[in-house]
Design brief:
With 329 residues, the chain is an alpha/beta fold. The protein has two domains: 132 residues, Nucleotidyltransferase, domain 5; 165 residues, Nucleotidyltransferase, domain 5, CATH 3.30.420. The chain has eleven helices and ten strands. The strands form two sheets. Strands 3-2-1-4-5 form a five-stranded mixed sheet, sandwiched between helices. A five-stranded mixed sheet has the order 8-7-6-9-10, sandwiched between helices. Helix 2 runs parallel beside helix 3 and helix 8 packs parallel to helix 9. The chain is globular and about 60 Å long. It binds 5'-O-[(R)-(carboxyoxy)(hydroxy)phosphoryl]adenosine (KG4) and zinc ion (ZN). The site of zinc ion has 6 residues, from helix 4. It is an enzyme of class 2 (transferase). Its cofactor is Fe(2+).
């Protein structure tokens, strides 16, 4: 089965084609980073306008790279939720138009689900596993019992972790997106600032919840003092974030006796998180899976693959399907 996937939930216009026999046939991503860097974050209307401009050339390239014709496609998968609604609709309308023109079924995919299952493109992972989702819009922990059998354990009660990275980078005038810049800069720094580890201890109802807004404010106060070097601020911030993510994830793995952890979303590219979680989990006999770097941030390969899993079950939707800005997986 060949499934074409479309992703436009934020600021990447992406199309990919997954073949259940041959694997990934093409994976095209057109990024808008340069356009949004001026604003220090994604500007929704600009993103939508860019998606409109890019979607057909990206689609064209994905078909050419895969060296197939449109009629070879068996199903069209698309990111249905969550995301910027003005961005999502471009992908949804594009998917519907394509499905109509080649008379093939439509498969909706949840963006977070796609990030999680992107790990399966290169690894065979046994169920159940714990999923730590860390991106620009999400910080969540789930138990994944099987495809479409998910248990939500907790998530951020304010900022997402990637969002906190982007905001701290903005405070330090480092550019956008902040995650990779802070990750790199912190290699040169020392962990000299005392920063909070939010929700690590405290109320049981927040056992698996996260909070990064207070940490961000604590960093801002330090930036304003002009006492520390940017690399030391970056390092101290990153250590605080990584400690919280690692401890909460391992606590959940211990409580539910789960031996596999899957990390997903843009922040899964973070070097320190990769290093520390792998190291700490190993001590507990737990294996951690991270997506390869080209699948960490938004892409359509993850949508095409997850779409394939759903198409295999025959779960299609009709042309009146509506996208959602916010909806849980
Ligand atoms: O998954 P993604 O591409 O988009 C969303 O669905 O949100 O994630 C983007 C986020 C941005 O906030 C970016 O700063 C962060 O992922 N990110 C990183 C790293 N690479 C990307 N954060 C920390 N360290 C990185 N190496
Ligand atoms: Zn994403």
């Amino acid at each position: 089965m060949k499934v074409l996937g479309i992703e436009t939930s934020c600021d990447e216009t992406a199309v990919a084609i997954y073949d259940s026999e041959k694997g990934l046939l093409s994976n095209v991503v057109s990024s808008q980073i340069e356009i949004h860097s001026e604003w220090g974050g994604v500007f929704p209307e600009l993103a939508a306008r860019e998606h409109t401009k890019n979607i057909l050339p990206v689609l064209d390239k994905a078909i050419k790279d895969a060296d197939i014709s449109l009629s070879d496609i068996d199903a069209i998968a698309f990111t249905a939720a969550p995301g910027l609604i003005v961005s999502l609709v471009i992908g949804v309308v594009g998917a519907k138009a394509l499905a109509f023109s080649i008379d093939k079924p439509l498969v909706p995919v949840h963006h977070i689900e796609a990030h999680i299952f992107s790990n399966f493109l290169e690894e065979k992972i046994d169920f159940p596993f714990l999923a730590l989702v860390v991106s620009g819009g999400h910080t969540e922990l789930y138990i994944i019992n099987n495809f479409e059998d998910y248990k939500y354990l907790g998530g951020t009660i304010d900022d997402a972790v990637g969002e906190a990275y982007d905001k701290v980078a903005r405070m330090l005038n480092l550019g956008y997106p902040g995650g990779p810049i802070i990750d790199k800069l912190s290699e040169k720094g020392i962990c000299s600032l005392e920063l909070p580890r939010p929700l690590l201890k405290g109320k049981p109802q927040h056992k698996y919840n996260f909070s990064f807004s207070g940490l961000k404010t604590a960093v801002l106060k330090e930036v304003e003092k002009q006492k520390y070097k940017p690399e030391d601020i970056a390092k101290s911030f990153q250590e605080a974030v990584v400690e919280v993510l690692v401890k909460k994830t391992l606590n959940a793995a211990a409580e539910f006796n789960i031996k596999n952890i899957v990390v997903a979303g843009g922040v899964s590219a973070n070097k320190r998180l990769r290093e520390k979680l792998t190291e700490e989990a190993k001590k507990e006999g737990i294996k951690v899976y991270f997506p390869p770097l080209y699948l960490c941030t938004d892409n359509a390969a993850m949508v095409a693959y997850t779409g394939y899993l759903r198409a295999k079950k025959g779960k299609f939707v009709s042309y009146d399907f509506k996208p959602y800005a916010r909806i849980r997986m």
